[in-house]
Amino acid sequence: MKKIISIALALFMIVLGMSVFSSCSKKDNVLVMATNAAFPPYEYVEGNEFVGIDVEIATAIAEKLGMELQIEDVEFGSIIGGVAEGKYDMGMAGLTVTEVRKQSVNFSDTYATGIQVIIVNYGSSINTLDDIFVFDDEGNPTALKNANLKVGVQQDTTGDIYSSDDITNWGFNDIEEDGTVTTDRVVRYKTGAEAVEALKSNKVDMVIIDNEPAKSFVNANDSIHILDGDNEYAVEDYAICVAKGNDELLDKINQALKELKEDGTIDKIVNKYINSGN
Fold first, then answer.
1. What is the pLDDT of residues 98-132, one digit of tens each?
2. Could you tell me where the DSSP H helices lie in the chain?
3. Which of 33, 125, 176, 256 is close enough to 64 for a disulfide, judged by CB 3.0 to 4.6 Å?
4. 27-111+239-274 CATH, one of 3.40.50.300, 3.30.428.10, 3.40.190.10, 3.40.50.2300
C-alpha cells in the first residue's frame, strides 16, 4: 500500500513540476499580431525584418502595454478568422472597418485613412472613371463601357469586396436580385504584387488597391500609373481587430492609440513612410 502511495505521490510531483515549468515558460507578456507582409508601406519585409507603418505603430503599442510584439505573417484572408478564434491577439494589415468584418471581430479606433485607387498600364484606354462606367443623369453607374473588362485585386481585401459588387453599386459584376453572380469580372490574387504583375502582362485591364501600396508599386514599375485627378474609387478607415469579448485588450489598444496620436508618434511614423516615397 505504501509503495502504491509512493508511486502515486511521485507521479503527482512530476506532473506538478511539469505544470509549474510550463506556466513559467509561457510568455504571457507577448502580443501576437497577425499581418500580411506584402502591403507596402504598411507592412512588408526588408532584409530579414518586418517594417512599415503598421509594424512601427504595433511596436509602439506593445511598448505602451509593456509587452513584446510577435508578428505572424499569414495570408490576408486568414487574419480575421485567426483573430476571432484566438489564434492571434490582434490583426493589423491595413484592415478596413466594414460591417461584414464587424460581425466576426471588434475594431479599435481608427489610426489611418485609406483610399482605394485604380492602377492601369500606360497607353490604356482607361484614363478616368468615365472610361469605365456609363452613368445616369444623377452620376450613378448603370453599365460598363467594356463588358469584357477584367479587374485585378488582392483576395479578401476591400478592393475585392467593392469590385465584386453589382455595377449599380460601383462594382464590376452582373448580379441578379437573388445574389447570383452571372458575370464575375474580378480576378483575385494572393498579393497586390501578383495583381500588378498580371496587369503588366495584360491579364487584367486594371488593379484596384489602396493608394499608398499603389504608389509603391508604381514607383517600382515605369509601365503603370494611378489614374490622375478626382478618380478615387473609395475612401475608408484603417483599424486594429481583436476577438469579440476581449474588451480588456481592446481598451488598452485604444488607450495606447490615443496617447500615440496625442504625442505625435503616429503622424511621425506615417509621414516617415509616405513622404519617403516607400
1. 889 999 999 999 998 888 999 999 999 999 999 99
2. 2-25, 53-64, 79-84, 99-102, 158-163, 192-200, 211-220, 247-262, 265-274
3. 256
4. 3.40.190.10
